[in-house]
Amino acid sequence: MITHFANTRGMADHGWLKSAHTFSFADYYNPERMHFGVLRVINDDVIAPGTGFGRHPHRDMEIITIPLEGSVIHEDSEGNKGVIKRGEIQVMSAGTGISHSEFSDKFEVTKLLQIWVFPKKLQIPPRYDQKKYSLAERKNKLQLIVSPDSRDHSLMINQDAFFSLGEFDDGREFEYMAYNKNNGAYLFIISGSFEINGTVFNARDGVGINQFDILTIKSIGSSELLLMELPLELSRS
């Protein structure tokens, strides 16, 4: 078990943007926090109203955006335009190269998680997708939002990874069984607290588990969890 407690993350304050980095990113560098398997970035961003990231490029990276509050206005070089809010998920395969911009609504603060995953295949054509999910379908259970094959109405990712979100009442105990027994898992507590295999973690803590068949998880208070199951080895073609 690898633990990354919330108060040990790299912090950045640019005025318009406040960000907490679980893994090395931008000016935050920690050689012991470069990635967990194919998971490269978890950025916990707070963006001031009417501000954001101007047009910038990406290549050979899978980028997943999860809004927590407010909205994200997206536009990219492939002609895609969209607004995503809480309950919606955005997936972008940068592939051979894509540039995009992300801005918050001019009237409200935007809070989001942006996650980068190393791709399974390099140099694929860029791809963009977004989807609205029913929040009721993740109440007291995990809702699959990302998978390698769009199973259960999830968004497809260019990696053998499975992302699930769940919102739980106090004292809910459940089990998570691996989709792929060779994968590890990284759990990010969005809010509240969870007991994971006997250890308690709190809001914005992260925990990586290298090997497992079944995870036993219990909510403490009203809590929200992001569970990412993904390969531990980089194997790209």
What distinguishing features does this structure have?
237 residues, mainly beta, Jelly Rolls, nine-stranded mixed beta sheet, seven-stranded antiparallel beta sheet, 20 strands, globular
CATH topology: Jelly Rolls
Largest sheet: 9 strands, mixed
SSE-based structural type: mainly beta
Give the overall pLDDT as a whole number.
95
> How far is it from the N-terminal to the C-terminal residue, by CA?
29 Å
* CATH class identity: Mainly Beta
How large, in whole angstroms, is the Cα Rg? 17 Å
* Helix share, percent: under 10%
Overall spatial form:
globular
Under the CATH scheme, the architecture is Sandwich
Ranges where pLDDT stays below 50 over 5 or more residues in a row are: none
Number of domains: 1
The total count of strands amounts to: 20
- DSSP strand (E) fraction? over 45%
Number of helices: 0
Secondary-structure element pattern, one letter each: EEEEEEEEEEEEEEEEEEEE
By CATH, the superfamily comes out as Jelly Rolls
